[in-house]
Amino acid sequence: MSENTSDTRSGLDAGAMDTSIRPQDDLFGFVNGTWLATTEIPEDKGRYGSFDMLREKAAEDVRVILDEVATDAGHGASDTDGDDVRGKVGAFYASFLDAARADELGLAPVEADLAAIRDAADLTELWRVLGRLQREGVGGAVAVFVDTDSRDSSSYIAHLEQSGIGLPDESYYREEGYAELRGAYERHLAAMGRLVADAGATDGFDAGRAYELEIRLAGAHWDRVRCRDAVATYTKFTLAELEESAPAVPWRAWFEALGAPADRLTHIVVRQPSYLEGLSETCTQVPLDQWKAWAVRRIVGSMAPFLSAPFVAENFDFYGRTLTGTPQQRQRWKRGVDLVGALLGEAVGQLYVERHFPPQAKERMVELVDNLIEAYRIDIADLEWMSGETKAKALDKLAAFVPKIGYPDEWRDYSGLEVREGDLVGNVRRAHAFETDRDWRKLGSPVDRGEWFMPPQTVNAYYNPGMNEIVFPAAILQPPFFDAEADDAVNYGAIGSVIGHEIGHGFDDQGSRYDGVGNLDDWWTADDRAAFEELTGKLIAQYDALEPRDLPGEHVNGALTVGENIGDLGGVTIAHLAYRLSLGEGGLDSAPVIDGLTGEQRLFAGWAQVWRGKARPEEAKRLLAIDPHSPSDLRANIVANLAEFVHAYDVKPGDGMWLDPADRVRIW
């Protein structure tokens, strides 16, 4: 390769690379091979990589803040309400760190709930108890949330979806490949039942009967591929129609206990209608005492991480050690950071942004987003497979994209949340109830298009089709994703491709069904949709044939991962175009050579660096079943489809990254 022609830092981690691996054979291995060979997955993780390393950094940054506010809270009042956000964050975190208090309380924080279940005289009364508990964070047989109406994005509507199981997915209850795991799960439920009995609050619960009920519920679940279908998962009912569809479910008692406003619950979107029919049959056919056993299991399972050490240990033994292969429970402070971030996310985020998100990072991201949108505009205009009629609507949608960068313009108001010193389970429940009530208040209110669904300290990004927005929290805007001091090529390959990926979700197999204002609307011509589905079908088949590095012999589910694969493919393609445009008239030839790599080569290396990671076999298998994202090595090497990558690294027939041009997929 050529000598360096610039003193600028590339942004690539040369020490992680393995130059004995040819990028023409395996870009992921070339960029990450030494790291893969020398890095052990931490004992408290099922997988580890670039995202995890940055999450660890964010957690350390947040820990410093939480330790300070927890100390401050310890010098103040024992209960915090009103506008004292710092005090609430500190008191909540301190209540989680107090393991001795949790051990002292044992099962006491949920004893009243167990008694309420035991005393329920009939199914309606039991579902009333379950509704109250669900408002406070205990999972039920049906999940409920409020979001924009996919057929009318100017209004909010309640959504119902399948729930009620303890294994990751309905396939775990039926496929032979999970038989051993099912046995371990049954033993876990029995162990939880014994812990409840040993605590003296009740006689425990019949784990076998609780598991049998889960099997019934799982049998009515839709699989994950079907659940991705934006059209199939939209069925609007009135409350009367919901009751008619699933008559044995005590809907009104449940909604009332959940705090749903009866006068605004006029319509409901049911995401899996046949599941509710199966649930209704289960309500009719399963005796009350079996429902009670299942209900006790739901309470204990939901609250186990916040109870005494034996419950915490047993919960981790199955969900961590067995399910993901993780040998060691995460340190308590890390779990506390996660919990407070999940339940008081923007309160923590506001403190995080004050210290860790400089204004210039947001300014640079605005520029990058604008460049990626412009690149998409050029790319769409030049597409050969799409008609002018559909292109015009695609460009209208692109022009309507709303980028959100770093943090919200207005912070969430937590003044109505009460946090009590030394009351961890109570704090958890009140925080969940606070969020549930906030969700219900959306019904009948104007849509808040400034709302964020990830707090700023999150290392991630998302596209929201109902608002046609792309969102990049502050914590992801750091190396290896974004380095303000590094050369542009790697930034375009990393955060540029992530931006392109999220924009691409607006045009993937499901996002493309929404128009520019966020409504489900078929804006494609029939021929264009057919051409698009031919291309996506080709991508599905390509990924169906792939085996992840961490789980040889197993195959990716191309239909489950197709949306994310479209995002990856479009993201890196458009990032390459945006980088080329950023170089002006000189084009790619004007880019300096740094670390022996051309600008074009560094861009693709920056993309592969983002996906650095490895997983334990157990976790790799779990993710293969439930994760809509492909394994990290296959995400990096999707660039084999790009003529730009072939040109950049002079890939030839016989090389590991070579795909015959007829087999390459290019959508955007």
Account of the 3D structure:
The protein is α+β, with helices and mostly antiparallel strands and 668 residues long. Among the domains are: 182 residues, Neutral endopeptidase , domain2 (Neutral endopeptidase, domain 2); 218 residues, Collagenase (Catalytic Domain). It is built from 26 helices and 11 strands. The strands form 4 sheets. The protein has a 4-stranded mixed β-sheet with strand order 3-4-6-5. The protein has a 3-stranded mixed β-sheet with strand order 7-10-9, covered by helices on one side. The model has no long low-confidence stretch (mean pLDDT 95). One of its GO terms (biological process) is protein processing. This is Putative metalloendopeptidase. It holds the Pfam family Peptidase_M13.
Q: Per DSSP, what share of the residues sits in E-state strands of 2 or more residues?
A: 5-15%
Q: Please provide the count of β strands.
A: 11
Shape: globular
CATH topology of one domain: Collagenase (Catalytic Domain)
N-end to C-end Cα span: 30 Å
Oligomer description: single chain
Spans of 5+ residues with little confidence (pLDDT < 50)?
none
* The CATH homology group name of one domain: Collagenase (Catalytic Domain)
In spatial order, strands of the major sheet run: 3-4-6-5
Kindly state the percentage of residues in helix.
Answer: 40-55%
**Averaged pLDDT:** 95
Please outline the major beta sheet: 4 strands, mixed
Secondary-structure class? alpha+beta
